[in-house]
Amino acid sequence: MRTAQDVSIVGAGPAGLTAAYELLKNAPDTKVRVFEAGKLVGGISRTESYNGFRIDIGGHRFFTKVERVSALWREILGEAFVKRPRRSRIYYRGKFYNYPLKLFNALGNIGPYESTRILLSYFKWKVFPNKSEENFEQWVINRFGGRLYMHFFASYTEKVWGIKPRYIQADWAAQRIKNLTLHKAVWNAISGANDTASLIEEFDYPRTGPGLMWERCTELIEEAGGRVEMETRAIRYEREGNRITAVIVEGANGEERVEADHFVNTMGLRDLVAAIDPPPPPHVVAAAEKLKYRDFLIVALVLDDRDPFPDNWVYVHSPDVRVGRIQNFRSWSEDMVPNDTQASIGMEYFCQQDDEMWAKSDADLIAQAAKELEALGLSRAELVSDGKVIRQPKAYPVYDANYKNAVAVIGEWIQSLENLQTVGRNGLHRYNNQDHSMLTAIYAAENILGADHDLWEVNVERSYHEEMQVPADKERAA
């Protein structure tokens, strides 16, 4: 279990770096090379910089029920965290709703008539629920009623994914909303109690953004003898039978063929299948071609206004603007903003690489974001003095009608390979947060050292509630 071996890891996001870190910590003689196509470590959890302003790609709360991951965060970053209150609101029909719900704020905005209709709808669907829960719409209506679904789930979900909620599989709701119900949400709003992961009231945050975690992790990997090679893209995996023999990478010095005993992948599952040579069987290739992704861009606006609003996030349900979510980076950490006179606001747009939003010039996107910020009443467009656009392809794996069967076909074939494991959000085509992406990587490292974990079971609903909340000492004993 502790013999020296070579391990090649594709991707320096949370999963890839965690796998490298765990291998070197538990088997120091292991030779580890990590290949990253980008200029920054951290993947979608990186921190971009622009003229001293730090930009979090999508917003990353450091909160988890997985004790092993929580301990690992502290092990890597020590005390370089700040404790932040969660301040989030929903913008809907011209009004702001506190999220998590606050009883009198919600009732005041909705009004007694519509509140009564929501409750009646809830009871109706509890008595006569959808007989099946195959899609997002059915799953949510059974738990919240049709009226609340119409108000607070349907429009925002369609804005995020670009498709009707009835075409999104129920797995996504079960994974993201977890055990929240209307009854629990109302009780939380009245009592202040909360044991639901999606409604946490405070969280940890690295002082200069989530990238700080992965920059420090990279330093520790290299201090332990590992190598993290930037701007080096994996272009092909060579295969002989049921073993991967080498990965072909391309960097500043051209192509290199890298042999290893074990391989850990974090690139998208669709791209992984396409990169294996000789290719998998035709039915596996066909399954991979069915997988889809949702892309994302963020327009970071610099405002000549210190703190225009207090939220970490504002979720925008209005169809009158394209922006889906808005961040105030100072509310994440004071160290995200380089001075006390300006603010940095992240306007997040969900899109596809082939649509008109992605194709717009940076100047047009900055102008549009400034105009929409004013339309929402959060600031004035004239206060925007600068901006930066960051585009993030393959930000979210899509849970459409085809994904589950496709992933099952691909997973079965990949598991037949003796020395390749695929981990992380896109590597498993599962909408994991970074804590569960890291857990898959921890398990992959342990598998290389002799364990037998099933990575495909991490953060399905059952495992989240039953296994992932088990304290670390009991988990190890089990």
Number of DSSP helical runs: 19
Strand numbers in spatial order across the main sheet? 7-6-16-17-18-15-19
CA radius of gyration is: 23 Å
Total beta-strand segments: 20
Mean pLDDT across all residues, rounded?
A: 90
The outline comes out as: globular
Describe the structure.
- The structure is a single chain.
- The chain is of the alpha/beta class and 478 residues long.
- The protein has helices at 14-26, 67-77, 103-110, 112-127, 136-144, 146-161, 170-176, 182-191, 211-223, 269-275, 282-289, 329-332, 356-359, 362-375, 403-414, 424-428, 434-448, 461-466, 472-477; strands spanning 6-10, 31-35, 47-50, 53-56, 81-85, 88-92, 95-99, 202-206, 227-229, 233-240, 243-251, 254-259, 262-265, 276-277, 293-303, 313-316, 325-328, 343-351, 384-397, 420-422.
- Strand 3 (47-50) and strand 4 form a beta hairpin.
- The longest helix is centred in the first third of the chain and has 16 residues, at 112-127.
What are the defining features of this structure?
alpha/beta; 20 strands; 19 helices; 478 residues; five-stranded parallel β-sheet; disordered C terminus; seven-stranded mixed β-sheet
Task: Offer a quick outline of the entry.
The chain is α/β, with parallel strands linked by helices. Helices cover 38% and strands 24% of the residues. A hairpin with a 2-residue loop joins β11 (243-251) and β12 (254-259).
